[in-house]
Amino acid sequence: MSLAIALAGNPNSGKTTLFNELTGARQHVGNYPGVTVEKKQGTCVSDAGQFNVVDLPGTYSLTAYSLEEVVARDYLVNENPSMIVNIVDASNLERNLYLSVQFMEMGVPVCVALNMMDVAKKRGIRINIEKLSRLLNVPVVPTVARSGEGKKKLLTTIATAIAGNGDKEVTPLNISYGSDLDEALDKMEAIIVSNNFLTQTYPARWTALKYLENDKQIMEIGNIENNHVESLLLSIVEKVTRHLNVTLDTHPEGMIADQRYGFINSVLKQNVVSYAHDPNRLQQSDKIDKIVTNRLAGPVIRVAILMGLYHFTFTYGEIPMGWFEAFFGWLGSVAEGSLPDGLLKSLVVSGIIDGVGGVLGFVPLIMFMFLGISFLEDSGYLARMAFMLDRVFRIFGLHGSSVMAFIVSGGIAGGCAVPGVMATRTLKSPKERLATLLTVPFMNCGAKLPVFALLVAAFFSENKALVMLMITLISWVGALLVARLLRSTIIKGEATPFVMELPPYRLPTIKGLFIHTWERTWQYVKKAGTVILGISILLWAMMTFPGLDMVEKQQFELKRTMVTQGASARVLEELSILKTDAVSPRTLALKQDLHQIDLEEAQAGLKNSFAGRLGVALERVTKFAGFDWRTNIALVGGFAAKEVVVSTLGTAYSLGEVDPEDTESLSDRLRTEEGWGPLTAFSLIIFTIFYAPCFVTVVCIAKEAGSWKWAAFSVIFNTALALGLSVAVYQVGSLILS
Fold first, then answer.
1. Which of 435, 471, 562, 671 is 20 to 30 Å from the Cα of 427, by its Cα?
2. Alpha helix (H) ranges present in 641-677?
3. Spatial separation of the C-alpha atoms in residues 23 and 19, rounded to whole Å
4. Three-state DSSP class for 361?
5. Residue 113's pLDDT is what?
């Protein structure tokens, strides 16, 4: 039987690293019921037994200030896991034990995994594990999650503790909060117990503490449970709050936090922690930060790192990308030669292979990009990037916490706007939150990356890394300028202060990098194989039907007849031979004439399709940005998902291409296509950066903003902005180049 254990801890404590070490590939990601917070689960098989492991959202507290804290707390109460494994950063023991104390007050079984012992050792910190365990009255196991050190002992300790607990209830920790609060807690606890008020779910003293901490969620539950009892509790809270304010100029929440830290301090001062040298000595991470977060050197280093990331991605991702393109080209030629002419052949070759294959061809590039981002994230540098950008964000009316939402959305490249929009929940100011969630879709998400890679490879092949860096800077500057515009007009309000924790620098583990890269790449592949496949088939149908009517078809047949009239029997026989070196010049010329007629017929059919008609109608406006009707079809498809821009262009140009020997890549086709050039490509890049978010992101914006009007605003405003910028780029560029 699997034992259910939950991993909890502060952000940057190594919780996810330990989860990956315990579960490896036996993990899956979903969402908690009713909310959009990510839920990671996995199975751990060991000599100590089999464990069902849940990775709870990283949190500093169990007081319901954020959705993540509510989710973590609700899971502990409702799912009742056999053990909570609280991952504690050994090098920041005092701060990290604050969450441990709250678990103990809640009366849930806890095992402390004292993680990053190697970092603590380097800093000269010595911890008496046995004494800490005895004073806290919970098991404490030293670990180094990144190397797997202590994993076996941790699992054995967990299994032993669970077996020892049996059906016994864990006695909640009882901390003294001073005479005033203790007296109030005693009164409240008596009322709660005598009325059985929430006692089936929470310990009585813990419920009283939540009322003193002004915990909105518990108060809402209590109001539904028994309005009269809640009124009695609130009257006590109000009385003690007034008293503390008058006598000590403080409030219950502050007093409770102070006393918890006081309890932790009293434990640590009992010879639990000792230092080999001055604890205030400048640590290695601080020394590095003096350089990388410097006001002058920091931005230069940041740009250099981004350039390095793009250079690494294109240099090493291009070779396997060529293999993928060659494979899908071969697959298309096999399907072309095996299937009989007709709709099925067109669907398989143009709709599926050229559509989905065009997106999957970028898998190596995406994988290398995710690998680089995972390295920066796991090393601790992304947190520094957020810290440095806070100075800039304030100028544009955004909050420092907005930085992480931008980075999650693809602030470097390869993220996703959906979790970026969700990440705005950490913002306490509604106006800063709204401005952030409306601008995070401008980031270069993983869905936009194939579009940029296609156009950069086709038209800017000599300066790929530089152009990708330029695209990144344009997206950031554009987002900040739009945020400033919104905060100065329709979303006015004051900026709120920002405090952020900087984790120590670490060398990422190979296993951790592999898991993070695989998770993100697999999400991309899965999306291409499901959502993109469905959209590609739908768009193929729109680009195929209704096609040409009988009169138009007869006109093209008449053209063919006229071209072949007068040709000798020998020429007509040679015409069926595919190898051009085996035919006469007269036959080759005739073959080219017939090919041109076939091409004109295919183009006419595409133009007459439902999608073609829409693209032609839009061309009246988009021609000023350099877009033709086929590009318009692709951009309309991009409203569903940005990867569809690539797959639709692949389908549109393969439907218009009738030579079975033509296996050139989409980049090569665009490079030689009339109307395409660096200026058109750059105009399309600008449009792709700024136009409407994909459909899933729009739904998410509506949900997070609490109104569909903001989702509609995002679609209309972003598209109008994108079109205006693209027109300006194309028209100014045309004047300069003319």
1. 471
2. 644-655, 666-672
3. 6
4. coil
5. 93
What phi, psi does 139 have (nearest 5°)? -65, 140
Rounded Cα distance between 38 and 423, Å, is 11
Would you give the end-to-end CA distance of the chain in angstroms?
Answer: 75
Under a CB-based contact definition with an 8 Å cutoff, are residues 447 and 409 in contact? no
Residue with tokens 């917070």: 37
Q: CB of 233 within 8 A of CB of 211?
A: yes
- List, in sequence order, every residue forming a beta bridge with 49; answer none if it has no partner: 46
Q: Helix, strand, coil: what percent of the chain each, to 5?
A: 65, 5, 25
* Token pair 């995972």: residue: 374
Backbone angles phi and psi of 280, in degrees to 5:
-90, 0
* pLDDT the model gives residue 663: 43
- Reference 173, options 111, 113, 103; nearest CA is 103
Strand spans (E) along 19-105? 27-31, 38-46, 49-55, 83-89
Closest C-alpha to 542, from 455, 655, 432: 655
Burial classification of residue 713, based on how many CB atoms lie within 10 Å of its CB (0-12 exposed, 13-18 middle, 19 or more buried): middle
pTM of the model: 0.62
Please tell me the predicted confidence (pLDDT) of residue 141: 93
Closest CA to 401 of 375, 440, 373, 372: 440
Radius of gyration of the chain (CA): 31
Could you say which residues of the chain have pLDDT below 50? 31-36, 578-580, 656-663
pLDDT in tens, 6-50: 998 887 788 888 888 888 756 655 544 444 456 688 888 888 788
Report which secondary-structure segment, H or E, holds 7. Answer: strand 3-9
| Alpha-carbon span 638 to 618, nearest angstrom | 15
Backbone angles phi, psi at 187, to 5 degrees: -65, -45
Both structure tokens of 725 = 């910028």
Map tokens 């900040």 to a residue. Answer: 480
Q: CA-CA distance, 316 to 181, in Å (whole number)?
A: 63
608 with 548: CB under 8 angstroms? yes
Domains of the chain by start residue, with CATH = 3-165 (3.40.50.300), 179-275 (1.10.287.1770), 297-488 (no CATH)
User: What crossing angle do the helices spanning 533-544 and 629-637 adopt, rounded to 10°?
Assistant: 150
Nearest to 356 by CA among 541, 525, 539, 532: 532
Token pair, residue 662, equals: 């033509």
With tokens 């009007």, the residue in question is 709
Alpha-carbon distance 657 to 95, whole Å? 65
Inter-axis angle of helices 252-268 and 179-194, to 10 degrees? Answer: 110
What residues are paired with 51 via a beta bridge? 3, 44
